[in-house]
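LOG
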Amino acid sequence: MIENRALRRPLRALAALALVLVLAGCAGNGMDTIAAARPDEATIPASELRLAPGDSIRVTVFNEASLSGTYQIDDDGYVSLPLAGTVKAAGATKIEFERVLAGKLKGDYLTNPKITVEVASFRPYFILGEVEKPGQYNYSSNLNVMSAMAVAGGPTYRASQSDVLIQRGGRGDFKRYPLSPTVLIYPGDLIRVPERYF
């Protein structure tokens, strides 16, 4: 009986070591392209959000109802407007796009056009991983990562309690962000809620 106890201790220690190594391997697997995000990446002001394919914009030309309306930015990043023609919108902020449109419309028809551009609806964001209802959701202004998880039914019991992975605009690598209400979500973001291991 004493011999069995003496054999069990090293076996338990070896099993615990093997378990730690397996979990460490799982945690590192597929995470090579994940980097920690810079603090300023989490809080881009709404005025600096860039228009992108899939966004719908409302253009108002002062005193010109026939030129005003709601337009969809196509897959190539362009929007077709009366008199202005086909104009590239993707990559511009609302203010930058207002200036571009004013330049296109200024001339014989309009001498000093006054234009405002508002986003009628942004492209959706996506959330997957350890949430109750993963999927695609409509974007709303000032959305943070905690609200995005709540919209998706909240975290599962296996979800990480400390961080999430976000691919900004659905492009590039996933970056690690703290699970905090100060981390904002933007249109087109892909959020992955990882599983916790302990």
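LOG (cont.) second protein
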Amino acid sequence: MRILVTGATGVVGSEVSDRLAAVRHTRVARRAPDASVVRWELGAEPPPDVLAGHWDVIVHTAAATRWTLSRDEALAANVGPLRAVLALADAETHLVHLSTAYVGGVRAPEDLRGAEFEGYRNGYEWSKAVCEEIAREEHRGPLTVVRPALVVGRRDTGAIARFSGPYTLLQALVSGLAAVVVGDPAGWAEITPVDEVAAAVADAALSAPPPSPRTEVIAGGAGSMRLGGLLDVVCGTLDECRAARGAGPVVRPPVVATETWNRFFLPMAERYLSPFQHQAVRLLAMFQSYTSMAAPFEPTRTVADPAAVMATAVRHWAARKPRLALARPTPWTLLAG
């Protein structure tokens, strides 16, 4: 069996490669750390000669996951690479495509740039929806789409290749930048440990190709945390880590309803906060639609005890980023005049 894994040094791709260790496979990444990884700038240059020939399975995990991608950046970073990968596939190639559970296109408030991305929350989510459409319409062979919720560290250790996405909230809490959290305290907040995402991807790669396109959703479903519970877990775990090193507790920020934030607090932020604080506000606002869903996902693979997963992820982050985790929060101040 000839298997290709793109994004092999990334958050999910590195975990997938570990799970495929017993099976011969070719790893590809934009930045190859050593000779065991083939360097390929997907979508920006032709594929290396070593990638020629038939592939039984292509596992496509390469992606830019930043929520701040512009439309052009998202096209270049995610849509272009998928088309490059499809050029390597044939009618017998099983494409296992890593997407995101948040491809439903829930219309976002204007300040979340919903109009720019046709109602999707951000450029990452929009580009993943476009990629799914392209994969279903243009790939001639079997297709499995894997959709995880927000990805955090491994269930057992909390380890993860890179801190991004939800980890921004941790830094904001300990620094004092998260003066408030925007959303519904009773809204659903879905997370997924990276090892369970990788397990779904690797299982798909090693299983018989599906006769028709298949979608796997890895999420907590009805057992997921609510936003209020997520904040309790995050703040409580941070406080445990800080107390063990002699630092004081973080302040659990109040939750402000989305409508109230957009109508009253956001105009005030634009007028009175510093440029740095205002940028922090806009970045944190991108969490609101991810942590305040009106209904949970319907998983095909259920994440058990997500609160324990989140606590383990926070402990690992605090251990790897002790200076950040022990920072003294700086209160917000309003600009005079």
